[in-house]
Amino acid sequence: MSGDSSIAEPQLNATPLIDVMLVLLVILIITVPVATHAVKLNLPQGSAAALPPTIRLDIVYDGSTYRNGTQVASLDKLAERFAAVAGSANAARITVVPEKRTRYEIVAQVLALAQRSRVRMLGLSPIPD
User: Fold this and answer.
1) Of the candidates 67, 83, 94, which has an alpha carbon nearest to the alpha carbon of residue 117?
2) Do residues 60 and 66 make contact, with C-beta atoms less than 8 angstroms apart?
3) Whether residue 128 has pLDDT greater than 70
4) Which residues of 6-26 are buried (b: 16+ CB within 10 A; e: fewer)?
5) Is the Cβ–Cβ distance between 99 and 127 less than 8 Å?
6) Percent of the chain with pLDDT over 90
7) CA dihedral sign of residues 23, 27, 28, 29
8) Which residues are 98's β-sheet partners?
9) Which of 29, 66, 68, 111 could disulfide-link 58, Cβ–Cβ 3.0 to 4.6 Å?
């Protein structure tokens, strides 16, 4: 048995490795042009318009309302001011800021009043913690 040459020598089969490498190369060739594709956009050019003035409307928990720090006597007076804002050419943006303890009924009344007055730009500020 010492002179037996029938012992097989292990060899690496490179065919499956070459197949995998070719598949990866094809995938790379297909995906690279897609990843580097640029979309050309023609965005409109224009001048920046001035922002309209902002009116802050604070609603306190007892139901009283403050317009830019000045107390508004009643909802009727607030309706008159909403109508004046809605009727102006450069309508102001109204931001309603309710206090955390304010009843929702009061806030809903103010928002409905603004809607009836045809206020176009109305925002409701989040309640701070």
Assistant:
1) 83
2) yes
3) no
4) eeeeeeeeeeeeeeeeeeeee
5) yes
6) 39
7) positive
8) 59
9) 66
pLDDT tens per residue across span 38-80: 778 788 887 777 778 889 999 999 989 999 999 998 999 999 9
Backbone angles phi, psi at 3, to 5 degrees: -100, 15
- The pair of three-digit structure tokens given for residue 18, joined into one six-digit string: 């070459």
Place of tokens 């040459």: 5
Please state, as a whole number, how many other Cβ atoms lie within 10 Å of the Cβ of residue 98. Answer: 22
Alpha helices in the chain (DSSP H): 15-35, 75-87, 104-116
What SS3 state is found at 81?
A: helix
Q: What pLDDT is recorded for position 2?
A: 57
Two structure tokens written together for 20: 């995998």
Question: Are the C-beta atoms of residues 112 and 78 closer than 8 Å to each other?
Answer: no
